[in-house]
From TrEMBL:
Similarity annotation: Belongs to the acyl-CoA oxidase family.
GO CC, any one term: peroxisome
InterPro entries, per database record: ACOX_C_alpha1 (IPR055060), Acyl-CoA_ox_N (IPR029320), Acyl-CoA_Oxase/DH_mid-dom_sf (IPR046373), Acyl-CoA_oxidase (IPR012258), Acyl-CoA_oxidase_C (IPR002655), AcylCo_DH-like_C (IPR036250), AcylCoA_DH/ox_N_sf (IPR037069), AcylCoA_DH/oxidase_NM_dom_sf (IPR009100)
Protein name (database record): Acyl-coenzyme A oxidase
Sorted UniProt keywords: FAD, Fatty acid metabolism, Flavoprotein, Lipid metabolism, Oxidoreductase, Peroxisome
Every Acyl-CoA oxidase C-terminal domain range: 515-691
Gene3D superfamilies: Acyl-CoA dehydrogenase/oxidase, N-terminal domain, Butyryl-CoA Dehydrogenase, subunit A, domain 2, Butyryl-CoA Dehydrogenase, subunit A, domain 3
Location within or outside the cell: Peroxisome
Active site: 459 (proton acceptor)
GO biological process, alphabetically ordered: fatty acid beta-oxidation using acyl-CoA oxidase; lipid homeostasis; long-chain fatty acid metabolic process
Classification lineage: Eukaryota, Viridiplantae, Streptophyta, Embryophyta, Tracheophyta
Limits of the Acyl-CoA oxidase C-alpha1 domain: 313-474
Species assigned in the record: Hevea brasiliensis (Para rubber tree)
């Protein structure tokens, strides 16, 4: 061993003790039963010598009756699937950053095939299979097959069409994708150039561009195109189109299909074969148009059914709803890494040579980290509520009640936008919270960021979606005088007159700890911003022109409304019975942190609309600091409660046992650059340069 290596080994050894210090933060009397998972909080003298949870193979489940009723009832499923994936070498993912695109993609195919094999062998239920795919943690064609192709047929196909196509899709005898976006049109769905002409005399070309799973895998797609019959246009509809032969996987005549190329980051979303597709007079049978909304008869006549045509956008509503829950997962993952590492990392501290300060104890670290922790919980709760809302609207649609569809659209669009933007920013913040090591691939954060950021764009650009919310809000405000009572998430607008006048009652910092006070401040801010926009809009002769001109303000108003939804759903959650000693109090603290931090970040809105005074703002800020101190002792327990395995986290910094430094050192040596001591290229490039310097020096 060279002396340099010897030094490094000593250096690592000297930090092992610090590395284990994560357990300092697990000394607390509170026991958590989050997501149905019991996190034992041990007082072990500030040292945890636990191996990874996969190694222990322990299941930390409490008895059923102890589980939190208000979490989805699938904790056992989730926990079992996480362990199954973590213990299977095929699902290894620590080498992703080193693989070429081809290797990466083939590896994804291998994992998807293996997952499917296990699903069949173990006779997994739909829920178990979906959890398994989640924990495999690799974007793949299967996401689009199960997440969009199948729902599109379910939502937009007739009974007959569902009976024909769904069994094939469920058995994966066909693999499908969702082909809507084109090279030239994504947000503007009505502007799609792909046409489906019933009279087969078209010679137009258009390129579909982006669909996941399309490039190399899908045999079928639901393609969105403008329907033309008898020379007339009938809007955009979905069509099931076979793309590849089921015998040899070759594209069918008239179809050109391929991958669109590398995307942002290494590894990351490059496991997915986002594709380009060109049709050249491809003919499909009439009954492959999804006809729940509109039927085309044998003679080419269009018959509109009684369901609204917006149902054609239904798959997007479904996926946007799942993306909100997904945001909570991605955020909680990043926060888990940053929190655990912040408890391990020490910088500066006493001058007397004593132990340095854990960075989690710095107020700046807390004020950056704890609001993200609070957001992870907030998004989980609002995601659960949104799931309920979606189920509710689906049931109503089945009973021909379409009244809640506009609200479901506004809520899914707005919350998708709010939560994905916040999560993308938060992952990057977590990287910075981990200092230099956060930039290492082995921290897990760079890849998480690269995989996650497109969520701000796919399923609707976030600004475009907020503008949809703003339209909905302006419509609601415009109807206030007409006697139509706003309901659901806009019910507060019925109190617009009061809210426009109301004055916040806070006089001392503790007054901010009343849910009703917080709610009223958020409601007043949202109403005032919406009404101000509506008043400005009314000054325009042409409302569309006004909407374009005021769109930046409208987006702000939509954000205020969506933040109110998240805050109010968090508060509602806390009104339920929450078992587990101290759990409710901790969640209450997180709820206040979520709300008061938003208030702090958007102070301009609250002050300029006169909802609160500068003095009240300053009291809220004082209170935030004291709330951070209350979270601090339980911060590790609160992230342990997410119940992530080390495999799923994929982060040396976020290891459950806190053994960060030796593992970082170990990881470094795995890099292919370290395969040889003298690098490839030394003879060609380094040596001649050095020799040249030597010659010059001698001259
Ligand atoms: C193992 C399981 C795997 C699960 C997988 C899911 C998990 C998710 C996590 C990761 C998956 C990652 C995969 C990502 C894949 C990505 C796929 C895609 O991106 S697909 C393409 C998505 N495209 C878009 O989102 C386009 C965005 N554009 C639009 O939605 C629309 O065009 C528009 C912006 C809404 C505008 O449309 P249009 O011009 O028609 O509308 P308007 O004239 O403004 O409105 C007309 C009325 O219609 C109402 N409306 C609009 N949209 C909807 C809707 N979706 N539902 C209901 N109603 C809607 C609108 O409000 C207007 O109403 P009125 O004002 O007239 O009352
Ligand atoms: C990783 C990934 C996976 C995808 N998977 C699929 C898939 O499986 N199937 C599929 O069909 N599609 C898919 N897409 C495409 C995706 O749905 C679109 O890219 C998305 O809807 C945004 O549309 P766009 O690209 O046309 O953006 P654009 O609309 O061109 O946006 C560009 C900019 O213009 C702004 N803008 C646009 N319109 C307005 C407006 N009216 N007012 C104000 N500002 C506006 C936007 O805010 C944005 O800043 C995927 C995309 C990505 C990145």
């Amino acid at each position: 061993m060279s002396s340099a290596q010897g030094f490094l080994n000593d250096w690592v050894e000297s930090r092992v003790g610090l590395g284990s210090n994560i357990s300092n933060s697990r000394n607390t009397s509170v026991s958590y039963n989050i997501k149905g998972c019991w996190i034992p909080l041990t007082d072990n003298g500030g040292r945890r010598s636990l191996g990874s949870r996969e190694e222990q193979g322990s299941v930390r489940c409490r008895r059923d009756e102890d589980r939190l009723g208000w979490f989805p009832p699938h904790f056992d499923v989730s926990d079992r699937m996480a362990r199954l994936v973590a213990s299977d070498p095929v699902f290894r993912k620590d080498n992703r950053a080193m693989l070429s695109r081809k290797e990466l993609f083939k590896n994804t195919l291998r994992k998807a095939a293996h997952a499917w094999k296990r699903i069949i062998e173990l006779r997994l239920s739909e829920e178990e299979a979906s959890e398994m795919r989640f924990y495999v943690d690799e974007p793949a064609f299967t996401d689009l097959h199960w997440g969009m192709f199948v729902p599109a047929i379910k939502g937009q196909g007739t009974e007959e069409q569902q009976q024909k196509w769904l069994p094939l899709a469920y058995k994966m005898q066909i693999i499908g994708c969702y082909a809507q976006t084109e090279l030239g049109h994504g947000s503007n769905v009505q502007g799609l150039e792909t046409t489906a002409t019933f009279d087969p005399e078209s010679d137009e070309f258009s390129f579909i561009w982006w669909p996941g799973g399309l490039g190399k895998v899908s045999t079928h797609a639901v393609v969105y195109a403008r329907l033309i019959t008898e020379g007339q246009e009938h809007g955009v509809h979905g069509f099931i189109v076979q793309l590849r032969s089921l015998d040899d996987h070759m594209p069918l005549p008239g179809i050109t299909v391929g991958d669109i190329g590398m995307k942002f980051g290494t590894g990351a979303y490059n496991t997915m074969d986002n594709g380009v597709l060109r049709f050249d007079n491809v003919r499909i049978p009439r009954n492959q148009m999804l006809m729940r909304v509109m039927r085309v008869t044998r003679e080419g006549k269009c018959v509109q059914s009684n369901v609204p045509r917006q149902l054609i956008y239904g798959t997007m509503v479904y996926v946007r709803q799942t993306i909100v829950s997904d945001a909570s997962s991605a955020l909680s993952r990043a926060v888990c890494i940053a929190t655990r590492y912040s408890a391990v990392r020490r910088q500066f501290g006493p001058q007397d040579g004593g132990v340095e300060t854990q960075v989690i104890d710095y107020k700046t670290q807390q004020s950056r980290l704890f609001p993200l922790l609070a957001s992870a919980y907030a998004f989980r709760f609002v995601g659960e509520w949104l799931k309920w809302l979606y189920l509710d609207v689906t049931q109503r649609l089945q009973a021909n009640d379409f009244s809640t569809l506009p609200e479901a659209h506004a809520c899914t669009a707005g919350l998708k936008s709010l939560t994905t933007s916040a999560t993308a920013d938060a992952i990057e913040e977590c990287r910075k919270l981990c200092g230099g090591h956060g930039y290492l691939s082995s921290s897990g954060l760079p890849e998480l960021f690269a995989v996650y950021v497109p969520a701000c764009t796919y399923e609707g650009d976030n600004v475009v979606l907020l503008l949809q919310v703003a339209r909905f809000l302006m419509k609601t405000v415009s109807q206030l005088g007409s006697g139509k009572k706003p309901v659901g998430t806009t019910a507060y607008m019925a109190r617009a007159e009061d809210l426009l006048q109301s004055r916040c009652s806070v006089q001392k910092a503790e007054d901010w700890l009343k849910p009703s006070v917080i709610l009223e401040a958020f409601e007043a801010r949202a109403v005032r911003m919406c009404v101000a926009c509506a008043q400005s809009l009314s000054k325009f002769q042409n409302p569309e022109e006004g909407f374009l001109e005021l769109s930046a303000d409208l987006v702000e108003a939509a954000i205020a409304h969506c933040q109110l939804i998240v805050v109010s759903k968090f508060i509602e959650k806390l009104q339920q019975d929450i078992p587990g000693k101290g759990v409710k109090q901790q969640l209450q603290i997180l709820c206040y942190i979520y709300a008061l931090n938003l208030l702090h970040k958007h102070l301009g809105d609250f002050l300029s609309t006169g909802c609160i005074t500068p003095k009240q703002a300053s009291l809220a800020n004082d209170h935030l600091r004291s709330l951070y101190s209350k979270v601090r002792p339980n911060a590790i327990a609160l992230v342990d409660a997410f119940n992530y395995t080390d495999h799923f986290l994929g982060s040396v910094l976020g290891r459950y046992d806190g053994n960060v430094y030796p593992k970082l050192y170990e990881e470094a040596w795995k890099d292919p650059l370290n395969d040889s001591v003298v690098p490839d290229g030394y003879q060609e490039y380094i040596r001649p340069m050095l020799k040249q310097q030597l010659r010059n020096a001698r001259l």
